[in-house]
Amino acid sequence: MNNLDFEDYLLNIPYPRPDVYGSLSMPVYNTAAYEFKSASEMEAAFCGKTTDHTYSRISNPTVHFFEERVKQLTGAFNVTALNSGMAAVSNVFMSIAYSGSNVVVSPHLFGNTWSFFENTIRAFGVEVRFCDLTNEKEVCEHIDENTCAVFLEIITNPQMEVVDLSFLSALAREKNVPLIADTTLVPFSVFKADNFGIDIEVVSSTKYISGGATSIGGLIIDYATFDWTRNKRLNELAKEHRNHAFNYKLRKEIHRNFGAYMDPRTAHLQTIGLETLHLRYERQSHTCLELAKRLQTMEGIESVNYTGLPGNPYYNVSLRQFGNSPGAMLTFDLVSKSACFQFLDNLKVIRRATNLFDNKSLAIHPASTIYGSLTQAQREAMKIHDKTIRLSVGLESVNRLLEDIGQALRKK
Ligand SMILES: *Cc1c(COP(=O)(O)O)cnc(C)c1O
User: What is the DSSP letter of 181?
Assistant: First the structure.
């Protein structure tokens, strides 16, 4: 779908059923349960013979409408909306991992995802094999018959590392292992995961999709491109459901049992966010590229890390995968940690806050906050430096942001 189609389509997806009041936007069905005309209709719904909603932990019309929009925009087989990006990550692994299985993953991960692998999933007998996913030999050596997935972030946050997906997906195909990617940093309006051999996409919809940071949410986008027969846990299901075995496991068991389905009010906010996703992304990522170029020559800034800069080591692969303005996040190094703190304290326009892709620009010192509870050695292993500021670029003008950064660097 090209960009014009994307926007047009987004605004015109019909309701699954006509609304009795002709409401222009999908109503918020703030209800826990649904009433049935007869016991036999109820039996049919509960036994999966009809698609009627029964209980909102399992499905809800407003959330379903949001899922449908994402499904049609991505061309996926199925989409599941959850109440956070972390719920999306954990529900995927709770569906496919088993005691004795292993996950091959880069240690360069969003903080809580790293903690999920490092601390949580290991306790269930799942081995976590951290390795350099840009190194073919290393990846090959780490995959075996019990590898339940290779997992990566398409641009790592905050290191901004980009794996060449043509190489990694070919390798995953050859080894018959599913490739699962966190695509939060470049949304599906721009990055077509399916074209790059990704089998399952997870997204923190809290970021670009919510629009204006209105709510926390997550998405599991399943392309049903992997035959799950080789997964020892899904093997039985796969005999009947083949490539749909993952979705079956997730929707019929895991997401129901973990109870992390999206709230209908969040789905309503994020459906509205979706309508402007493409416009906001375009504006924010262009501003980010412009800023990255200008910050390189600013006094007090030692280096700028943005994959859209021609000197960046990932420039070419980033251009192939994400186009010429790869997202609205960049990092830069100042001379020291205290210079970073001084800079943050001096900001007037850019807000001191975590989160990404709000309409407002946000700055943070990752080493002392998101990664503050790790040891210095752990931070070094993850390439989290004391001198780094992370900037998420909002909808303000380039000049206003440059002015603010300039004054914050100069003021002592
Ligand atoms: C924020 C984020 C998450 C977690 O999402 P939540 O919605 O905060 O649970 C996961 N991955 C990446 C890359 C993120 O930026």
Answer: E
